């Protein structure tokens, strides 16, 4: 078997639309370009990209070219995994392919077209020029994009959404381009795996092309194998795997994956074709009155975020940065990521890592908000091929649990007042679910996000997009009234990043919120007279009881400190309700995971992969063994202990009433055992045994305590989870830290890792740890008086060097350096 033929370095050149009908006519300066990659990525690499005045790359034609030598005598297939978008492929001056769908892959047999020396060129025609063509008008218009004709093009919307996307559209060979020359080749591979009772069943089908006669073909899965049926150029068969270990989301179990391969024997030898590892799991959904997922018979509370892309200039999505970002998601307790219809289908590497890490994927098809012309025969055929290819690819990954037809099309139509029969067309209502059932059985199909109920965006029925806490400025007290069953996007805030990212945004200028460099990157809904910074300010007042405008005018550093914490506090309180015993919520995905550029964007992780405060605040609410606290008004406070694991947890539950800085007003604990897959609710008043007005609901006098602190311990007195409730909203005024009150010591663990142990004689609000080149496992936490807390730091890169860390807190003036212990490394 021959590997892919090596290409010479690719180069790129811009042309006036239509000026160069063929490669020989191209005139202009060529420059180096990465493939896979985009025009924007190539320009950035040359230092020619400026977010403040970006080039209009949609307005030009773009030519790519490379060369290669004549390969071996085996048949050769030119494979193009993704071309964005209106592409012509030329080989040695001959056009061998016209493509018009960014999300389709193409294969061209070029065996008879090769020479001793070959030139491969790809032209990407101007999107702007194509959008000027006369086409039928839509039944409705959307503010999501500026040009309604984008509904006709199967191209990415990222970069073309003015309200919140950087102006970086995908143009170019964004996925791999390769020339495969092999004596035996598989194509149109279709493989599914389902559970039949307790047994796994794998079905396989593919076309095979071989120079020599095929003698036999066999499918191997783990330690099992079966012969495949050969009929002309198609091989197919079914393999039953008795009682396989099951694949689980990481919050509920292990990720059993079974190696798989196809072996084809010809007259000259045996050829192995590795397949994606197989995971057997059973996915089921209940739709009434809301939406909930079951995995292997167990109800799963789905939590996580809406995935964006780790680099909008290179949306192909591979490499170490992808691993870093998915590991962050897994470590935060996320068990689901949604790829929304405004994004792009992800790379094979993304789904493979989600398989290995135990992260479920909610997969939208790439349709959003617009009235797509599905009744047009050519367009329908195009998207049918697109969907068929993507489903066949994704069916090989157990992580993919839910397919969704689109993002916000039903909501868009309903909010514009259109009749119900116009909300859902035949493609999303009939054709697409049939394709999903055919090509990826064992998954759940949802026609639109949101959908269900009298109106698709109602919160109590179906799937909703919940921005009650967020854009609609509702109170936390309305959460139970909203009764959100499943929200596939929610809690959008302008999340302030760390100071290093702010420096990058401002280019070294003083950070001021009204500066154009800052405001350009604050997300907004197109046409709205407010942005999501206004939303954050509203909740900053609710959390800390301060006026954000006054604070911003006279103390910008303090405004930024509180603004980092406030959104995550609101998200954490919301998830505390949704994970409580009083809620029927079955899932919530934050909008969104990672910023698309350095910004105070919606992301809980910034564009460089550094977590923001909200990431850590949510991480403490997303764990498998979780303690949450809810305010029940005149009934006091309730504690909710969730154990999603398959094992019981024995330990202790402690409740302490704290008056700052370090006075324990009351402290009681009980022994308890929480069973497997169980959720228990306890009253704080019951544990304390006396009336303390724990949530300051009766207000017979000034509160005698500032905070209620609940701690769930293991039987070995290890902290499993903590929960805090503050009696009043207030700014925790910063006080000087006397020498010796705070101890911060780092101990080297080897491989660039450190354990930092903190201990303070007084309560600290929202402790912030910073260390250039290192990442803390926890951050923005409250530190109890005289209770040591250890935090592991890991290097972000191989050359992070010695740890230089600092400690800050909202109620502490200045920062305290972390001392490095001279002791030898401790075993981990």
Automatic annotation (TrEMBL):
EC number assigned by the record: 3.2.1.25
Reactions the enzyme catalyzes: Hydrolysis of terminal, non-reducing beta-D-mannose residues in beta-D-mannosides
Catalytic EC class: hydrolase
Domain Beta-mannosidase-like galactose-binding, chain residue ranges per copy: 28-175
GO molecular function: beta-mannosidase activity
Keywords: Glycosidase, Hydrolase
Biological processes per GO annotation: glycoprotein catabolic process
InterPro entries for the chain: Beta-gal/glucu_dom_sf (IPR036156), Beta-mannosidase-like_N2 (IPR054593), Beta-mannosidase_GH2 (IPR050887), Galactose-bd-like_sf (IPR008979), GH (IPR017853), Ig-like_fold (IPR013783)
Name of this chain's protein: beta-mannosidase
């Amino acid at each position: 078997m021959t590997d892919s033929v090596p290409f010479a370095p690719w180069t790129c050149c811009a042309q006036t639309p239509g000026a160069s009908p063929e490669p020989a006519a191209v005139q202009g300066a060529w420059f180096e370009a990465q493939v896979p990659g985009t025009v924007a990525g190539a320009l950035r690499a040359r230092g020619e990209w400026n977010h403040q005045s970006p080039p209009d790359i949609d307005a030009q034609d773009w030519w790519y070219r490379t060369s290669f030598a004549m390969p071996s005598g085996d048949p050769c297939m030119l494979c193009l995994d993704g071309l964005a978008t209106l592409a012509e492929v030329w080989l040695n001056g001959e056009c061998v392919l016209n493509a018009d769908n960014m999300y389709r892959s193409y294969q061209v047999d070029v065996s008879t077209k090769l020479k001793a020396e070959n030139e491969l060129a790809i032209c990407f025609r101007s999107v702007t020029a194509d959008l000027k063509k006369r086409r039928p008008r839509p039944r409705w218009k959307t503010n999501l994009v500026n040009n309604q004709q984008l509904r006709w093009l199967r191209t990415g919307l990222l970069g073309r959404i003015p309200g919140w996307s950087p102006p970086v559209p995908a143009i170019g060979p964004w996925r791999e381009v390769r020339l495969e020359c092999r004596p035996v080749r598989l194509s149109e591979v279709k493989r599914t795996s389902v559970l039949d009772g307790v047994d796994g069943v794998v079905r396989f089908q593919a076309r095979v092309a071989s120079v020599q006669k095929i003698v036999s073909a066999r499918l191997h899965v783990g330690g099992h194998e079966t012969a495949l049926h050969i009929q002309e150029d198609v091989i197919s068969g079914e393999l039953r795997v008795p009682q396989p270990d099951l694949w689980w989301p990481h919050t509920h179990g292990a990720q059993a994956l079974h190696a798989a391969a196809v072996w084809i024997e010809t007259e000259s030898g045996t050829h192995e074709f590795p397949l994606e590892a197989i995971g057997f799991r059973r996915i089921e959904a209940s739709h009434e009155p809301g939406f909930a997922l079951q995995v292997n018979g167990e109800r799963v509370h789905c939590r996580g975020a809406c995935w964006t892309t780790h680099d909008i200039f290179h949306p192909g999505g591979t490499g170490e940065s992808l691993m870093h970002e998915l590991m962050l998601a897994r470590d935060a307790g996320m068990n689901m990521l949604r790829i929304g219809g405004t994004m792009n289908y992800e790379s094979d590497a993304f789904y493979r890592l989600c398989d290995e890490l135990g992260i479920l994927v909610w997969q939208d098809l790439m349709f959003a908000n617009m009235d797509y012309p599905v009744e047009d025969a050519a367009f329908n055929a195009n998207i049918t091929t697109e969907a068929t290819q993507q489903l066949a690819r994704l069916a090989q990954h157990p992580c993919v649990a839910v397919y969704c037809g689109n993002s916000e099309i039903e909501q868009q139509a309903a909010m514009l007042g259109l009749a119900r029969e116009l909300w859902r067309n035949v493609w999303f209502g009939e054709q697409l679910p049939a394709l999903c059932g055919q090509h990826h059985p064992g998954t759940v199909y949802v026609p639109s996000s949101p959908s269900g109920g009298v109106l698709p965006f109602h919160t109590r029925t179906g799937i909703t997009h919940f921005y009650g806490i967020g854009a609609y400025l509702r109170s936390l007290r309305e959460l139970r009234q909203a009764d959100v069953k499943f929200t596939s996007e929610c809690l959008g805030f302008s999340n302030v990043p760390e100071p290093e990212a702010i420096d990058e945004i401002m280019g070294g200028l003083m950070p001021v919120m009204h500066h154009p460099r800052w405001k350009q990157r604050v997300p907004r809904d197109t046409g709205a007279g407010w942005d999501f910074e206004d939303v954050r300010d509203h909740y900053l007042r609710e959390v800390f009881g301060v006026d954000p405008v006054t604070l911003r005018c006279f103390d910008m550093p303090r405004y930024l400190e509180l603004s980092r914490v406030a959104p995550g506090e609101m998200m954490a309180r919301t998830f505390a309700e949704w994970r409580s015993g009083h809620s029927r919520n079955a899932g919530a995905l934050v909008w969104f995971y990672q910023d698309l550029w350095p910004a105070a964007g919606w992301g809980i992780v910034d564009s460089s992969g550094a977590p923001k405060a909200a990431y850590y605040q949510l991480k403490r609410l997303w764990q498998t063994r979780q303690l949450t606290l809810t305010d029940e008004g005149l009934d006091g406070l309730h504690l909710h202990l969730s154990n999603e694991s398959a094992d019981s947890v024995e330990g202790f539950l402690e409740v302490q009433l704290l008056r700052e800085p370090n006075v324990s007003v009351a402290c009681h604990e009980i022994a308890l055992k929480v069973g497997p897959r169980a959720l228990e609710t306890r009253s704080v008043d019951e544990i304390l045994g006396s009336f303390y007005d724990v949530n300051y609901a009766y207000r017979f006098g000034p509160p005698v305590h500032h905070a209620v602190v609940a701690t769930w311990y293991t039987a070995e007195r290890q902290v499993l989870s903590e929960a805090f409730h503050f009696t009043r909203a207030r700014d925790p005024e910063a006080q000087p830290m006397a020498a010796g009150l705070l101890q911060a010591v780092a101990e080297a663990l080897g491989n660039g890792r450190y354990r930092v142990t903190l201990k303070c004689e007084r309560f600290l609000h929202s402790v912030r740890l910073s260390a250039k080149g290192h990442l803390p496992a926890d951050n923005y936490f409250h530190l109890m008086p005289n209770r040591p807390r250890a935090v592991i730091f890991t290097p972000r890169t191989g050359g992070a060097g010695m740890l230089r860390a600092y400690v800050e807190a909202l109620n502490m003036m200045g920062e305290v350096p972390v001392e490095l212990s001279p002791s030898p490394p401790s075993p981990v």
